[in-house]
Structures are given as C-alpha cells and as structure tokens.
Amino acid sequence: MFSEVLEKYDWDEITARIAAKTYRDVERALAKATPDLDDFMALVSPAAAPYLEQMAQLSRRYTQQRFGKTISMYIPMYITNSCTNSCVYCGFNRHNKFPRVILTPEQIEAECKAIRRLGPFENLLIVTGENPRAAGTDYLETALRVCRPYFNNLTIEVMPLSEEDYHRLTLSGLNGVVCFQETYHRERYKVYHPAGMKSNFEWRVNGYDRMGAAGVHKIGMGVLIGLEDWRTDVTMMALHLMYLRKKYWRTRYSVNFPRMRPSESGFQPNVVMTDRELAQLTFAFRIFDHDVDISMSTRETPLFRNNMVALGATSMSAGSKTEPGGYETYPQALEQFAVSDERTPAQVEADIRARGYEVVWKDWDKIFD
Ligand code: SF4
Question: What does the DSSP assignment read for 160-213?
Fold first, then answer.
C-alpha cells in the first residue's frame, strides 16, 4: 500500500531538497528524456521560474506527441451535498447549516437530460459529498444505472470505497474514479479533516490502491492547492503516480491541481499559488509524465484555461454547476465553491477551436465496458 511507501519520505526533508535546487539542476532536468522524481523537484522549484518559456515549449511538444491537438471535454454533475465530514475549507462541511439535498433517480435523470441540452457531453463526472449511510454504494450504483443511457463515460468523485465496492460499480458502468488526497502532509491533514471518515489519512491515501486492484479504468488524482506547501505536496503526488503506474499498469491516470476557491466555509488559503506558478506546475508534470491526462476545471479563469489549451492541458470541464441539481432541479441550491469560468460549453469549444485544437466530446464507448 502507498502509505508504507510514503512513510519513507520526510515532508521537511523534501521541502528542503526542493528549496535547495539550483539552475544547474533545472537545466539537467530539462535535458533528460525521462526525468526522475529528483528532476521533478527541480522543475517545480523556485530555481525553475526563469525557465518558464523553455518548459512551456517542451510541455507543448510532449503533449502534442502523445495527445495530438485535442482537448477532451467533461462536465460535473453534483447529485448530493449531504456530508458527514468536517473539512474546514468546504461549503458542504456538516457544520454549515443549510438544507441538504440527495437527488432522487428521477431528478438525476432530469439533470442528465438538462446536461445533454447544454452540449454533446459524453464524459460525465458524478460528484457527491460523503455520507455513506444516506448516499452510499447502493445509491451510487443507482445513479450510474440512471446516467448510463445518456453518457458513454462515467466517472465518480465520491468518498473512498472498498475494493469490492469499486469492482461492483465497474459492473454498473463505472469507468473512472477521481479522488483528491487534498494534502500528503500526514499531521496537517488531521487539522483540515478533523472528523468523519475523511479524517482517516490511511484509508484515503490507500484508496488509489483499492481502485487499481478493482480494475478501475482511469484514476484521477489531485491535491488541494492552498493548504500546505504546494511544491512538496505535488512532489508527493508525483511519487504516488509513479508508484501506481508501476503497480497498476493497465490503468490510465489523470492529475488536477485545484486552487482553493471562495466557499461558504469562509476558509482562507494558507498558501496562494500565482497563475505563473500553476503554469510552471502544469509544464513540470507534463515533462515528468508525458502520458498523464492533465485536467483544468472551471475553477480557473477563461484567460488561463485558454492559454493552457496548447501548453499541456488535455481535458477541460465547461458549463459546470457545483450544486446538486444545479442544471435543472435546484438551480439555486448552495454551490460547493464558486466557479471562475462561466462561459457556455459552446463558447469554450469556440475558444479551443480558435487555437487550432480539436474538441473531443467522446473518447470512450460503453461497448468497451
Ligand atoms: S470536501 Fe467533500 S468530504 Fe469534505 S466537507 Fe466537502 S463534500 Fe464533504
């Protein structure tokens, strides 16, 4: 399990190693065809900041070699904001008093139809809070069965499940699982996640092993930027990705670097990542792993997302609502966080095409399940 691997890495030591990287380390990393973790640390270090243009060109080249000039589209569908956890940075935190919603199968179907009217989406990301009793595996299985006729690719972003439950859901149409570790800092993790299932660091960090063992086709990873030193957190994530690739080599992987957005929680980020730093991180990940899908959500602004089309990103959401039932049933419900990009899917598509890139709505067929 990855938690055992992680124990061999000391947070403070990794932070110090990144801070000590020099221009020479960065140039060595840029010259390598297959950079290792030490090189990745150089690429995300402050020493790499003056090399942004060079990193962007490399990132563009590797992305085009592997993915062509394409951006794959997806859309999230929140089906419940019911949650038994207390993540201090989240508007759905159980201490935040507001009406909780768990969509019925009929309401989920109405959301599916509303999304199909928004654009030709085939990649659906089903998102829930974490309430195993009221919206557990049975509920997820029902949701997948309802959504299946409308979309060819179904991914869930839900509480970590057991290997048996992941496997069971793959039989109901599940193609991918996204789970954000939030932070790999074991001690600080407890401060941000003081209660509920999510307070169990091991259960969460080993969830990716369970996904891999269950044969989930695609695994999405991420850390929440705004909690701890982002350079150390993403280095731990790169280590995690290397581990998973080796052990579950049939699985595809995606990464996401969500920057904290304003929410009802009122939590203020501990660290702020600039656009320049997010660009550096995106390029560093592409140079480190040429095959990984890099996803950019509507947390980021239209300007930033447009610039990333040709420089490393490979999938984007559009038209997103972050409240359950937001497309049709409860358009006024509380959103999990505020989005930055409010363009319609058609506007996002037009902007991608204007850069000479093709928009891919469908890259999987349910016949492959
Ligand atoms: S981040 Fe997820 S688990 Fe935590 S309070 Fe929000 S919805 Fe619940």
Answer: ---HHHHHHHHTTT--EEEEEEE---HHHHHHH--SSGGG-HHHHHTHHHHHHH
Domain tally, the chain = 1
Residue 229, in any domain of the structure = yes
| Structural domain range at position 317 | 2-362
CATH at 217: 3.20.20.70
**367 within some domain:** no
| Tokens of residue 305, six digits | 């997302």
Average pLDDT over residues 305-334: 90
Residue 83 alpha carbon to ligand 1 centre in Å: 6
The pLDDT score that the predictor gives to residue 192 is 97
Instruction: Pick the atom of ligand 1 nearest to 193's CA.
Output: 4
Domain membership of residue 98 (yes or no) is yes
Query: Residues 24, 50: contact at Cβ < 8 Å?
Result: no
Q: What is the mean pLDDT of residues 223-247?
A: 98
CA-wise closest residue to 28 among 18, 42, 46, 14:
42
pLDDT at 264 over 90: no
Report yes or no on 47 lying in a domain: yes
C-alpha–C-alpha distance, residues 92 and 81, integer Å: 6
Q: Tell me how many degrees the CA angle 252-258-269 measures, rounded to the nearest 5.
A: 150
- Does residue 83 have its Cβ closer than 6 Å to ligand 1? yes
Q: Which residues contact 357 (CB under 8 A, 6 or more apart)?
A: 69, 70, 71, 309, 310
Atom of ligand 1 nearest to the CA of 90: 6
DSSP 294-338: EEE-TTS-HHHHHHHTTTT--EEE-S---STTTTTT-TTSPPSS-
